[in-house]
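Researcher: Please translate sequence to structure tokens.
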Amino acid sequence: MAVNEVRALLERHGHIVQEIDGGNDHGEDLHVTFVQSGRRTEDSLAIQVKGGVSTRTRRGHRVPVGDHEGNWRDGSLPVLCIVHDAERGGLFWANATRQLRRATALRKKVRSIVVSGESVLHDANLDRFVEGMRHYLARERQGVGRWADMADVEFAPSDIVKPFENEVYEPMVFWQRRGKPFAVLLHHDLDWEPVRIEERMLRFEPIPLVGDLILDIAEAHWLMGCFRSTEWWRRPVKQGDPV
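Model: Translation complete:
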């Protein structure tokens, strides 16, 4: 019943839904490809569907992760958990991939995906949901979606996002929003907590630093390149400028 409810909602809006054989054993029940103006898009994801009663909590639901953690966090397709609970209002959803990545950043072990009672999915808000998920999937293709999940932030379509990996494979991200006089640094060594940075904070002598954060020389030169190449995007937005 739960799988049919999710399928019916998506198909009413023209999206392509394929049921995965043995989904209950492998952690995904549905493969969904979004459609726009009658044409298939490049945006696909997987969904784990659960009936509501067994997963209920006081404020929502919890979907057990079991042995699916690696696939849900690092698989080729992001995974959503959708719970059907007719007595509580229908369908509720959560981004399992995002929650598991954030837990990794915080060095926490997640036993279940939290599905908020406020994250309701229905006909009236499905278009907005699809738009948000397509933006999420676009950032995945750009290779920066993982870092947004780790830091629990949202990259807007107009944001400049530049990832970098140092010689010991530690990732960091330079994030510039339109018209903001500062950039944001997301860094593995800072547990992905966003840190505001400005070019004047960057030092090369006696050791490379940005603010109080010690860098290696490659990281410092990369940051300098990021600042120089995005200076125009920090200028104040004037009326008539594209946003």
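Researcher: Any highlights?
Model: The chain has two domains: 2-140, 153-234.
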